[in-house]
Amino acid sequence: MWPIIQKLQKLSLNTMTLQIESPNVYTQLGVAVSVTGIAQVKIQGSSKEMLESACELFLGKTERDIERVALETLEGHQRAIMGNMTVEEIYKDRKKFSKAVFEVASSDLVNMGICVVSYTLKDIRDDKGYLKYLGMAQTATVKRDARMGEAEARMESGIREANAEEKRMAARYGTDIDIAKSQRDFELKKAAYDMEIQTKKAQSDMAYKLQAAKTKQAIKEEAMQIKVIERTQQIELQEQEIVRRERELEATVRKPADAEKYRLEKLAEANRTRVILEAEAEAEAIKVKGEAEAFAVEAKAKAEAEQMAKKADAWKDYQDAAMVDMILETLPKVAAEISAPLCKAKKITMVSSGKGDVGAAKLSGEVLTLMEKMPHVVENLTGINISKNIKAATRR
Question: Is residue 370 assigned to a domain?
Answer without folding.
Answer: yes
